[in-house]
Fold:
Amino acid sequence: MPIDFTLSERDKGLLENIRASALIARKYARYYDEHEESELAPEQLPEAAGFKRPFDEKAHPYNPKTDSGMAVMGMLQTMAQMWGDYAVRLKRQKGGLGNAALQAAGTPDQQKKWGGLTLAMAITEPGCGSDPSRVQTSATLDPKTNEWILNGEKIFVTTGVRAEGVVAWATVDKAAGRAGIKSFLVLKGTPGFTVAKKEKKLGIRGDDTAAYVFDNCRIPRENLLGGKEEVEKEGSGGFKGVMKTFNMTRPGVGAIGLGVAEAALDFTREQLEEAHVDLSYGGSLASQTAIAKKFQDLETLWEASRLTVLRAAWLAEKGKPNNMEASVAKAHAGAAVRRICQGCIEILGTMGVSREHLLEKWLRDCRITDIYEGTGQIQRLIIARTLLDYTREDLK
Amino acid sequence: MPIDFTLSERDKGLLENIRASALIARKYARYYDEHEESELAPEQLPEAAGFKRPFDEKAHPYNPKTDSGMAVMGMLQTMAQMWGDYAVRLKRQKGGLGNAALQAAGTPDQQKKWGGLTLAMAITEPGCGSDPSRVQTSATLDPKTNEWILNGEKIFVTTGVRAEGVVAWATVDKAAGRAGIKSFLVLKGTPGFTVAKKEKKLGIRGDDTAAYVFDNCRIPRENLLGGKEEVEKEGSGGFKGVMKTFNMTRPGVGAIGLGVAEAALDFTREQLEEAHVDLSYGGSLASQTAIAKKFQDLETLWEASRLTVLRAAWLAEKGKPNNMEASVAKAHAGAAVRRICQGCIEILGTMGVSREHLLEKWLRDCRITDIYEGTGQIQRLIIARTLLDYTREDLK
Amino acid sequence: MISFGMTDEQKAAQDAMRSFSQNVLRPKARSCDEAAKLPEDFLGKAWELGLTMAQIPEKYSGMGSDRSPVTNAIILEELGYGDVPLAVAALAPSLFANAIVDQGTEEQKKTYLPAFCGEKFETGSLALLEPGPLFDLGKLKTTAETSGKEFILKGRKSFVTLGDRASHFLVIAKQGNSRDAFIVPKDAKGLSISGPQKNLGLNAVPFAALELGNVRVPTSARLGGDAGCDVQKIINNSRVALSALMVGLARGVIDYCVPYAKEREAFDEAIAKKQAIAFMLADMHIEVESMRWLTWKAASALEQGRDATKEAHQAFVYAAEKCMWIADNGIQVLGGHGFIREHPVEMWFRNARTVSVLEGAAAV
Amino acid sequence: MISFGMTDEQKAAQDAMRSFSQNVLRPKARSCDEAAKLPEDFLGKAWELGLTMAQIPEKYSGMGSDRSPVTNAIILEELGYGDVPLAVAALAPSLFANAIVDQGTEEQKKTYLPAFCGEKFETGSLALLEPGPLFDLGKLKTTAETSGKEFILKGRKSFVTLGDRASHFLVIAKQGNSRDAFIVPKDAKGLSISGPQKNLGLNAVPFAALELGNVRVPTSARLGGDAGCDVQKIINNSRVALSALMVGLARGVIDYCVPYAKEREAFDEAIAKKQAIAFMLADMHIEVESMRWLTWKAASALEQGRDATKEAHQAFVYAAEKCMWIADNGIQVLGGHGFIREHPVEMWFRNARTVSVLEGAAAV
Structure:
């Protein structure tokens, strides 16, 4: 297919469908923001029926010659949903980050067995933030019972309260470093596995974030994702496999932030247009107002960022390597959404910080984008290593 | 004295005096820019008489209760001179960076002997940029003749062609690292000391930058600045002494850049005022044009930077430590002048890049500010080490 | 002469405020933010500092210290370091009283100032900002019209500090092509006060909204009497004060991040040893210094009675941008922990974004 | 559908331009910059690439490939990577010819296009920019007035590429409230051409200034004839082309800095191993990618015949800012060596600042 940036009618239909339900979700955005403790499912909300808007696949079948690919559309759909509200969307979602890991690293049997559950992903520990190779949670095999015994603490587990199970990283051999790290599936209710805390956060308050404790938690031997028990001696092949999960989640996280930022831009544009600020493109700096210039710069930044996200997804759907591009997308979006939401507030002034509107919430929700799934700093390390042809040891 | 940011009548008189001669210097700015090879002394220029504008010290004696201190005024005078033209000022200047080193580290005898000469400072070598401790130029004492034998190469020696002598860093003991580095005074004409090259540069073309070669260059034993021949075993006390020179030169380099940037701002303001752009302060973002907002931001950045320079100088004249503040001033000014000159060109458009005006030259002249006397990166290392209470080994 | 030297008196004031910040403001900051209200005894405790009455002349029952914007800037940096919202609340009375000290007629001074010199907390409040987007100090929508011996005020005001307990409001309104300030009692007919407004940050401060529906005040209610007043001067004072608070806030972020970054490890060493983090901290420090000197310069221009419009504008705009930048990067230094309400940085981030849009309207 | 996939034809064009850049442009870049002129044989050599005639329809003696702004963007990135000024010079004929292909009347096409399809270099030139500060595309000072069957053109133009050897100029002028383009022969009465202008960068390009003192042209000289033309479309085309050149320039900076930073040592290791440098390079890469996709998007909108005003504006403004940022930081990566003319980075810095103020006026 030649270079193209337009959407087919089917693409548009799918996105409009999502936006319509996203607008309903937005009505409950403030509720979830102010009721951080609430575990009320969006399906119990008065207008829940509006969330289900089946898309007529038969009338509009997928045409690979004209319609955008799955991964690209996945990004655009994520943006459209988040444009409505971050929390309501996530609360409605079957499946969590752990499902992506199961998909990437699980055996067919494992995928069949647990694929229907909502799985969280537990990586970070109190002592390690951006550096997953420092995982201290241990998994010891008890050959008598054919069970793994997990011990350790996990923090920042997204949807960790609501999830039915978790994919947790643990080391089977601390001396082996990154090569010793494996993924284990632990179901809620397993003895020795407790949700220790639900975090209170700056934003994305509708979406829960948990802390876990594993205290001699025993799980079946076959709950090791992928099933490979041996620790590779050289390199970190297994670890790299684990890290591969990020190549779609990183642009995805970018898309999440950009959806929220788009809402902020749309709200700001409406206000400016109502105030008759000329926002037209095409002219020179000399004829612009400070407000219009600032707004257009933010809008341009958003578009630039969105294109890096789509590029990373497009590579993935073409089966091309996208490790660096996934980090480019995440790093760009993480920084862009910070600037965009802050800038929109600067433009609108006191209106922007008032809780009568959602803009202030979008600022808070957005801020996580540059932090989770690898901070902007981590993404830059990855990009720089690739550019410089450096190993992890060369540049860290 | 209480906090005050105003200038006394005497302060103003001194600066106006300098500005008047700086305006004459500006007439020759383009000549020196386009004749990089020229070593014509400004005193030979047609209007050279205007350079000498004696200030009537008797009619306006220095009053320490009302007039600004020496170091602060030094910064302001530097700015005023550079506002005229970088090159002409430096070409007229008796004394170079090496004189500051002589002042800081030389014995009274040495200061008396060489203080009247224009001395360059030779630190950087082809193999070491920002890291002076990697100096490879060696100094070996010949006890028979009581001479030091220098061997090595130096680059980026400011005013290295015009200078009558140079203060060069060399190591007397490579194994000792930083502690082995000493400063030596070498006069032009000393056998074995040659000016290998005069660099062609982006900017400050009127000011020469040389490369030196020392090839078994013999200098008297007493040409070691400060006279301390022994290498301290622990720490890097001697090296720190050497580095102290920078505590005034760093803000001074900031002042140089800010003087040039001020010229750029003044030129841009004139053009904007002629075009009836409202540049008044006091209102809100909502009522500003993009051009005015951009210009005011640059003007504000300049003022912020200028105050960090004055602060570092003020501390010095009060005898207070200013190591960190000197780096703050240098780092701030280095970044600020890059943005200011680039921004002025953006505001004025094609007029800004035309060689009919000096703005494009000021951009080029300014660019060195964030590089020499320690790049912006080096300054940030120094600041961060102080903030974090880290040693050079902790953070590098 | 250029001088950065504090007087002994200023150093003493700085020390006193530093300890008030550490002992009173910091411990209360988080709980007030979560509860979105002031602690019961707080305004009384802050009143004991005597900040308002200190600069009221003795003839109006004050303590008669020099009215010093520079000293104020030094004090406010320390209070902002402690907690910006509590500082804003504590300083609301000064905002009102100082405008009268600076620009009131003799009669206005006699009438209003003594109330601020008693033992009990008392406040008036500045009503400058207006709701809606694109607020423009040069194009106020609130108007004042003369009608016989009265002014009729119409319009809406927002972000009125302590609007729930102020006895009077200093309402800034447009009168023809100029701006003026009017002293309006809280029980004026046609004035309705609502609130508290809920915001992103500064949660502890009860901000009110005012609706002025044909509020009539006597001509003597105009600040400065027949001569009117210089509204820009009030704005300049406010902008400098807000700048000083932001310097304090930003400095607080650095002081929190530095030990955190030294303790926190990644890739086998403290994150502070990574240039990306270390340089971020260095840049924060560079900017806090710059913010402070711009603020001092503007305060000094005010103190010397010069037109400080440019200096106050520069200080405020620079401080607003950099304070936000620093708080935002403070979160980044803490990573995931920066997003959690167990650490104060996310609160400072919200306060920074909020205080920096106030344009010069919420502090002394 | 969203697709970033180049056609095989585009890949082949990219390869060809890459080798032209490497073999012809790069080796000449520095000497042309210092001499401030084009190499003798250069325009002829560039002409052999057939860039201009490729997109001229066969009926006007061209090669009749599709007129593809996307392919142009890909080509221009490669040429910009080689050397922006030489690329600007080589592409001047296309700038003129493409406007006629896109918007000329049948008669204009017949009259002017065949000249661009011969073996000898031939050029016309766009005259859009005007001297002085605050140039505003929306408020041109050059005017066109009708007078019988003629237009009278008055005004001044600057930065007219290859103005010294163009046979015709496409002069953009204001006519009442709208803008139009007029084909003016170099020997028109009342037209004086001066130059070359000396500038900060793009030194190899002879830019001329035009003075139009009551220049009379027949009504048929208006591009598009009686219907006139869409001047914004010409500007959009130019902006996208300039953006593509800037992508190439910026990519060149990174490719130069990466090996330098790996080789250069400070504090006992390669400076590329310092996060401050490594992250700078990473940010440069992030921005080059963004610049390219914005440029492609705008080019694609042009290609599909849609109004590309927003896309072209976004691509140009973003590319201008980031190209400058990258070139400026390229100098910083090299430190003192970045300031010396032995390395190309300072030249790229000058070219970046110059090309980024052209507003959409110097390339295809």
